[in-house]
Amino acid sequence: MEKENATLLTEFVLTGLIHQPLWKIPLFLVFLVIYLLTIVGNVGLIMLIWTDPHLHSPMYLFLGSLAFVDASISSIVVPKMLLNVFDKSKLISLFECMLQFFSFNISATTECFLLAAMAYDRYVAICKPLLYPVVMTNDLCVCLIVLSFVGGIIHALIHEGFLLRLTFCNSNMIHHFYCDIISLLKISCTDTSLNYLIVFIFSGSIQVFTISTILVSYAIILFTILKKKSDKGIKKAFSTCGAHLLSVSLYYGPLLFMYVHPASQQVDDKDMIDSLFYTVIIPVLNPIIYSFRNKQVIDSLAKLLQRNI
């Protein structure tokens, strides 16, 4: 009888972040502005890289792919969150919920692999500058980008497959602003021990692999630039790598806390704050971080504006 009742549960309620009516309009406007800036910044960066032949190099191909993923993450989560601010029911169907999680998982995992690939690109550029055009070709760059997306799709399929075995009958209240896997596991009436183990193993392995790649790449870069003892070379290296290091630090902190630490069965508002950081804040910051001190991007933007104005 319990199983039959569980199959009737086809809708969930996303409780969201905003519970005080007084804060609804101000926070709605803040998140709306952030989302619009995210789309304009990331799509603008993609178009700039696409239209300027001088930016058709591996570094900027990776950057354009990262911008696409950031825009996707924000678009998967934020519009539904904004609609739910004034929607009293805050309902989302089981199909929509699974689709949202699947799409988000692809984008989030792909970003991890892209950040690792970008670190390798910086390693080759700084440590093997003469071999860079030979080693880091556009073909290899495209191959790494495709593999990043394939890895994201496979990872999402694994979790989606294990989610589909679950039934939901304890509650239809998801204490989150989007369909996150941990929140879904907390309301399942099926034993979720295997799912938690899969999350820990696969999400943990991906993060350990990508973080290790980044750390090893930058450790070699640091050793190389210190060995040269050139102030100009050190400044140039830190200028080249600084944006990527900042982006990595901002992105991996919340992810490590969310998916690798031992899972709690209690609702944790801090989980939602961490999720808000890498679904809303980081996508709007990345175009600024990567463009602000990048002379080539600024020059390209200036030329584009001059042509149109």
TrEMBL record:
High-level lineage: Eukaryota, Metazoa, Chordata, Craniata, Vertebrata
UniProt protein name: Olfactory receptor
GO cellular component, one term: plasma membrane
GO molecular function: G protein-coupled receptor activity; olfactory receptor activity
Main location: membrane
Membrane-spanning segments: 25-48, 60-78, 98-118, 130-158, 196-225, 237-260, 272-292
InterPro entries documented for this protein: GPCR_Rhodpsn, GPCR_Rhodpsn_7TM, Olfact_rcpt
Membrane-related topology note: Multi-pass membrane protein
Family the entry assigns: Belongs to the G-protein coupled receptor 1 family.
Subcellular location: Cell membrane
Alphabetical list of Pfam families matching this protein: 7tm_4
Keywords, in A-Z order: Cell membrane, G-protein coupled receptor, Membrane, Olfaction, Receptor, Sensory transduction, Transducer, Transmembrane, Transmembrane helix
Origin species: Mesocricetus auratus (Golden hamster)
Domain G-protein coupled receptors family 1 profile: 41-290
